[in-house]
UniProtKB/TrEMBL annotation:
<feature type="domain" description="SWIM-type">
    <location>
        <begin position="135"/>
        <end position="170"/>
    </location>
</feature>
<protein>
    <recommendedName>
        <fullName>SWIM-type domain-containing protein</fullName>
    </recommendedName>
</protein>
<dbReference type="GO" id="GO:0008270">
    <property type="term" value="F:zinc ion binding"/>
</dbReference>
<dbReference type="InterPro" id="IPR007527">
    <property type="entry name" value="Znf_SWIM"/>
</dbReference>
<keyword id="KW-0479">Metal-binding</keyword>
<keyword id="KW-0862">Zinc</keyword>
<keyword id="KW-0863">Zinc-finger</keyword>
Amino acid sequence: MADSERPRRTHPSVGNVIYANFGNTTKVSTPKPAVQKETRTSLASMLLIDAATTATDSERVKRGRAYARNGNVVNLEFTNGRIIAAVAGSQNQPFNVDVVLPPRNADQLNTVTQLLLEPGSLAEAKRGKLSQQLAETMICASDEQVRFLCDCPDFAMVCKHSIATVFRATERIDTNAQLAFALRGLDMDTIEKSLQREAHAKADSAAQTNDGNFWGDKTALPQLPNPKIASALDDSDLDALHKAMRSISYTAIDELRAVADIEEMYVFLTQNH
């Protein structure tokens, strides 16, 4: 069919204005908003990140974070007081990074055990929820210095390779709370067993202390009184007894018999056989 013979689609028009699909509803699908995965950073990780990022510039932080995200941290070790890593950079061989935490003495480490004795502290620590004092003992306090060492050519106090190491290390800590304790040469399972032994020892000691004297001191109790034996019938209210029996008796004779039967049963039960 020739073009001139094809039927043309017509639209309403007024003068030289053509109304084509004006006012018609067009369905447009709105893309669903992207769901961002929530990342929970533990307090221990926040202390380490703050120590690194506040000692360098934003550009090194940005590049170091990208290194961590892209997998440039090819080796990562948690040892007593330090984090050691190898970070791939612009050269063929990766750069060696050493993050050195402030030292801790025996008294400070013993404080960790005492803090975990508080109700619920150990269970919270296993989930990575450390108190401020525990986190500062594991990592560093705000007034302490963390040293960042790297053999790259960058002479900045904290280079991008150190930043990458920190971000990768904190990711590991947030998924495994034991690593925060490993930075101080501590093991959570060993600590838990030690706390259990200490609790059992205290319980045994308390039991031995109170053996034979559980309810208090050993003061001799006074002799029990020896009251005079008296008949309950002598102290009873016979009028009340007769009144009670009268309510269930047909005649006065029945009432008297009921009272007499009760007296006889009492005498029988209280006799020594």
